[in-house]
Amino acid sequence: MNVVQSPDGETVSDGIRATTLGALRVLTLDRPPLNVLNVATLRALERAVGDVATDADASVLMVTGAGRAFCAGVDVEDHMGDRVTDMMAALHGALTALTRLEMPVVAAVNGAALGGGLELALACDVVLARAGAKLGQPEVRLGVFPPFAAAVLPGLCGRAVAMDLCLSGRPVSAEEAIPMGLVQKVLAADGFAAAALEYAQHMSELSRPVLRLTKRALEAGSRLAPSEALGAAERLYLDELMRLDDAREGLAAFLEKRPPVWKGA
Question: Of 78, 160, 197, 214, which one is least surrounded by beta carbons within 10 A?
């Protein structure tokens, strides 16, 4: 494992740059030219996500790529022979670590997100994409299929869209991905990095415990029947949310026409 600490506190480990910006944590894939992942990078990503998970001052995580691509997938050589088992375990570990984070996770797709790169974006809660960026699951064209995408795409985008993307292997533009549910917001190519950072930083300035409870309520809504999800959300609201100082502060600030001062921000 190769870890470098820069003077400003940014760490670099096996192609993963970790940056602290107030309550926002940013993980940047930095393996030029296309940020292709290998086993070492996937393990470094899982470790970096684990560090964020235990960071008491972190409110939001953003995942992005350096250069002209978000991530063009996982190294094809790591799919071959005896290496595929380690690759699959490393990919599963990194993506599962992201899906288990209690805080919101924003993917800033600054360029192509293909194969394992799109699966990485799908493991995040909100996907922002640069105008014109290409997204796709081309694995079928190499004679394989994407396990994580096969597991999550039907629930996220519907059966027909999942079938289209995975059986054709065709890429789609960020604009086309919006109605599919792959992308939540397309940002202009010029100034994309700054605009994505502004989105994530704005979220990170909100109450940390309220963000986490809101994510828990939404996750219940995504996996439970509506009546069960409503019951779960109401229990969270009454038993946990309304006991928070920040919930009382937010409501009081609105009534008093002043900005809230979060204790958990």
Answer: 160
Q: Exposed, middle or buried, 237 (CB in 10 Å: 0-12/13-18/19+)?
A: middle
- Token pair belonging to 167: 């059986």
**Residue 54, token pair as written in the block:** 């235990």
Catalytic residue among 46, 77, 119, 198: 119
Q: In terms of Cα–Cα distance, which of 73, 75, 3, 65 is closest to 38? A: 75
Which pLDDT value is given to residue 265?
A: 61
What letter represents residue 98's amino acid? L
Q: Is 176 in the active site?
A: no
pLDDT at 62: 98
240 catalytic? Reply is: no
C-alpha distance from residue 5 to each of 12, 17, 81 (Å): 7, 10, 35
pLDDT by 10-residue block (mean), the chain, 265 residues? 53 90 97 96 97 96 97 92 92 97 98 98 98 97 96 95 97 97 97 98 97 95 90 94 95 96 84
Question: Which one is catalytic: 46, 77, 102, 139?
Answer: 139
